[in-house]
Design brief:
Strand content: under 5%
Structural class: mainly alpha
Number of strands: 0
Shape: rod-shaped
Distance between the termini: 95 Å
Oligomer: single chain
Radius of gyration: 29 Å
Number of helices: 1
Helix content: 55-70%
């Protein structure tokens, strides 16, 4: 009887640890992917700027 309870408790703990490891690596993978995409956009230098100049003499 005691061995069965001990086995059940150890099985539950093992399942919880395995689930934690799976979720940790999944979340870490997602976070790493997002950070890599963010760094790609930070390194881009192709920003365009449009300037409009208004002349006071030719205003409509």
């Amino acid at each position: 009887m005691k061995k069965k309870i001990l086995f059940t408790i150890l099985t539950i703990i093992l399942v919880i640890v395995i689930l934690y490891i799976i979720f940790f690596f999944r979340n870490n993978s997602i976070l790493t992917s997002v950070l890599n995409i963010e760094n790609e956009y930070k390194n881009k230098n192709n920003i365009s700027v449009e300037a409009k100049v208004y002349n006071e003499n030719n205003s409509f």
